[in-house]
Amino acid sequence: MIREFRSISEVNGPLVFVEGVSDAGYGELVEFQLNGEIRHGQVLETTDRFSLVQVFEGTQGLTPKTTTARFLGRGLTFGVSEGILGRVFDGLGEPLDGKPRPFVDKYVDINGAPINPVSREYPAEFIQTGISAIDGMNTLVRGQKLPIFSGSGLPHARLAAQIASQAKVLSSEEKFAVVFAAMGITFEEANFFIQSFQKTGAIERSVLFLNLADDPTIERIATPRFALTAAEYLAFEKDMHVLAIVTDMTNYCEALREISAARREVPGRRGYPGYMYTDLASIYERAGRIKGKKGSITQIPILTMPEDDRTHPIPDLTGYITEGQIFLSRDLQHKNIYPPIDVLQSLSRLMQRGIGEGHTREDHSAVSNQLYAAYARGKEARELEIVLGEAALTDLDRLYVKFADRLESEFIAQGEDENRAIEETLAIGWRLLRMLPRSELKRIRDEYINKYLPKVES
Amino acid sequence: MHGQGYVVRVAGPLVTAKGLEKPMMYEVVRVGELKLFGEIIGIEKDLVYIQVYEDTNGLRPGETVEPTGLLLSVELGPGLTDNIFDGIQRPLERLREESGEFLARGFSVNALDRQRKWHFEPLAEVGVEVEGGSFLGEVIESSTVVHKIMVPPNVKGTLQWIAGKGEYTVEECIAKVELPDGTLQELQLMQRWPVRIPRPVKEKVFTDVPMLTGQRILDVFFPVIKGGTACVPGPFGSGKTVIQHQLAKWSDVDVVVYVGCGERGNEMTEVLIEFPELKDPRTGGPLMDRTILVANTSNMPVAAREASVFTGIAIAEYYRDMGYDVALMADSTSRWAEAMREISTRLEEMPGEEGYPAYLASRISAFYERSGFVKCLGAPERTGSVTVIGAVSPPGGDLSDPVVQATLRSVQVFWGLDQNLAFARHFPSINWLNSYSLYLDRIGEYYNKSFATDWLKKRNEAMAILQRESELLELVRLVGYDALSTEEQLFLETARSLREDFLQQDAFDDVDSYCSLKKQYVILSSILLVHEIILQRIRKGEDYASLVANPIREHISELRWLKEDEVPDWKQMQDSIVKSFSEEVKAHD
Ligand SMILES: Nc1ncnc2c1ncn2[C@@H]1O[C@H](COP(=O)(O)OP(=O)(O)OP(=O)(O)O)[C@@H](O)[C@H]1O
Ligand SMILES: [Mg+2]
């Protein structure tokens, strides 16, 4: 049911008012035709007299008098099939690699639908990333949404690429796929990812959606939704284990703010709209496992924290929705530690059920708890040392400072293609714990201490 | 249909309609061709504002709006426990059968199963006068809940007929009451109640009975009363949900209503897989049998989040009316407040602080007011309670947030979560220095009377040591540890023991997850006794280092990991502590 109008009455930033439309659907897709060029929009508000449309490609050069608005009678959809694997699309799902459109199995609404909570399967399968700070202390499991909280200039791209290339589930050979959504990142960064996928051969099993820094900003609102629609299809209809990397959510949120400002909505904190929590949840919750389905979606969104501030609304609201976070620290970066993961500020909420006997190893949880407690104490003592000098510390605290130093340089730090097995990660943990008096190891049962604690210090 | 209207505007979850003949505030309407579920929340001349509980994508002006004449209500009757509903009480299991793994729109599913038969035992006799709340009979609802079938509030008269013992569906007539005007009212196992109106009670009463939680820091330091209110504010990842889950698992109540309001899908799944496996500490039945879940996760329609909290509390009040102790957990009330804000913004109401509507505080306090320890209506005489515990998720963990502030004005207990404790994996990360319970004195007296006469005293001693610790740590930061006297060092050592061996509690450890009052008392008393002994002895000039090295201290730190039946009683423990210190004296001589 296509309707055409030539009655644009107002253009305001990315928004367009079309008068005389009395039956536009909420969320309906609109095509604007201006001198041979076609732009796309979506209805944000509809009334019996007009509708308000956001234009993904922006409104530069749009002349109300000569532009036609075609209401297409349907929402924004993506044509899915296994033919999307190995392909590159733009931020609105159009092929960008010069090849023809892949054949279409079916068209799917990019907004998806919420997974019924009773259909969910609790994620509990350990993913070995080969990175100790993650595997040992912030374990990732299949179906988790675990963002990377980064800052400008920090190596989140390298870390995400390393995860993508090393991630595997122990004892399984299953179909996997990578879905990559870029929103407003530089060509260079996007290229880094593509090359890394090429190097590992994952490119054949990847679907890429690219909206780069010089692409239209409003398009960024649609890009992750296209990507997750592809991911859902591959995971829940084609049984694949999908790793979805979505970057940079900060640019996504900025696009949201732009629309909100243009609508003159009452702004929430720092000008971001009050519904940003709900909006972000509609992206992040599109991860997980479903009962009776073989596939899964593991989501790794990346965001850069403005001014490295974790209480900024973007990381804050993200943290309230996701199942933990990997927190990158500028301090560690300055100490030349890669990956600069601040384990204390990081968290994996799904870790408990993904580790231990039958998943990783029986002592994993206890070792992790003890490393946390000891590292926290060591860092605290280190701060005291900075203020008062070493002499002010007790012998035990001095030991803890040393422990913290070694945890950073031996456990957290590792090579960019160093892929550590979980046993190796735990062994490093035990080696470090060996530095402390046995009576300090309160969080570990004697049984494990007797079994795993090295006999000699090294 | 007669009296129906049509859509004139759609903006997200808010739909404006015209043409409805007799719209009523809070009336349920069906919107559009898909018959989306909506509720009238504003009427202005011929314009009617509707919040829609389902996704409005594709909805267009001109589509019809059907009135139903009913207020937004819950169905109350057997079949609520061991069940999971969405924010407007649609059973999610049934929705899955109807519409698959993903939630489809426009499905209308009864909350209570209409086919299932329940075994009804009559309790009342024909000819008696009955009123709202009077027991008519009972149904074994689950292994742990005997469901009392009550006369609905607002019905009063003479019982003319009651069904015999037997199997009935929730809709079959099981009793007839002759009303004062002579008409006969038929009653079923099921009744309806509008969620936004509190169910009536005889009166609220004063009580000093604690709701025991099996969580050491809560029961000893910041206890909550049956029928009381508490809040758990904290930044993301600080442990709000884990605390709420722990309370749902271990609280000594009869029924638990858990409202997942705008939070994660997997957290509901977790309850669904865990609770059937766990045992109700009171009855030994599966924990799920006393639990009712209301789940409106963050990606489900935002308006239903607003309703979910009311759906939950109406169900809680219903079980309270049976004479039960009910606990309601709402995680997170901030998402509920945000839903109000979103709707209010779309209504273009005058915004208050941070864009929240001006009525935010009054809605929050009205919600917490629905808690309480009450005398129930009807015969027999009985009491019941609803305890309400709300999680609050302030932006950036900042307690000046309007939702936190309004909540603090409405509740009696504040469990403040501390990000730094969470970073150090000190869980539960409740900050013992700024948290409080206004019930402390009352409950302390109760403990003193019914459990151990020195309960409150010991609690206060322990708190004093922790407070002293924070002062001393300030000092250490200025002058270093060595500048402290041995007595001061002892305070730090004891405080450390209190933190690590008592306050910390691992929710994921099978044993540590729950700690009985008795065990709590033994651990606390042991730590304090050791402190006292060492203090006396260093004052007499004995060597501090060898005193704190006493192996009994290590034994005390292992207590929390001991199963309930392996924990020595306090008398035994006291003896071994005293003995171990006197042996030490001998060894030194
Ligand atoms: N008592 C506890 N014992 C062990 N671990 C805990 C405990 N409390 C919290 N944790 C740890 O902290 C993590 C975060 O807790 P939780 O999910 O309850 O946070 P939250 O405050 O609800 O966060 P959000 O606001 O984002 O929902 C848990 O996944 C768990 O790893
Ligand atoms: Mg939570």
List keywords for this structure.
A: 458 residues; alpha/beta; Elongation Factor Tu (Ef-tu), domain 3; Rossmann fold; 3 domains; 13 helices; B: 589 residues; ten-stranded mixed β-sheet; 16 helices; 26 strands; 34% helix; 23% strand; globular; binds adenosine-5'-triphosphate; binds magnesium ion
SSE topology:
The complex is a heterodimer of chains A (458) and B (589).
Chain A lengths: L2 E3 L2 E5 L2 E5 L9 E6 L2 E11 L2 E6 L12 E4 L5 E4 L6 E4 L15 E4 L10 E2 L4 E3 L3 H4 L4 E2 L6 E3 L5 H11 L1 E2 L6 E10 L1 H14 L5 E7 L10 H14 L4 E7 L1 H14 L13 H9 L3 E3 L5 E9 L8 H9 L2 E4 L2 H5 L12 E2 L2 H4 L9 H25 L6 H18 L9 H12 L12 H7 L6
Helix pairs in contact in A: 2-3, 6-7, 10-11, 10-12, 11-12
Chain B lengths: L4 E7 L2 E5 L8 E5 L4 E9 L2 E6 L11 E8 L1 E4 L6 E3 L6 H8 L18 E5 L6 E2 L4 E6 L5 E5 L6 E6 L3 E3 L4 E6 L5 E5 L2 E4 L8 E2 L11 H6 L7 E5 L6 H11 L4 E7 L3 H10 L16 E6 L5 H20 L3 E7 L1 H14 L13 H10 L2 E4 L7 E10 L9 H9 L2 E2 L4 H5 L12 E2 L2 H11 L4 H25 L6 H18 L13 H23 L4 H5 L3 H7 L11 H19 L1
Parallel strand pairs in B: 8-21, 19-24, 19-25, 20-21, 20-22, 22-24
Antiparallel strand pairs in B: 1-2, 1-6, 2-5, 3-4, 3-6, 4-5, 7-17, 9-11, 9-14, 10-13, 11-12, 13-15, 15-16, 18-23, 23-24, 25-26
Adenosine-5'-triphosphate sits at the interface of chains B and A.
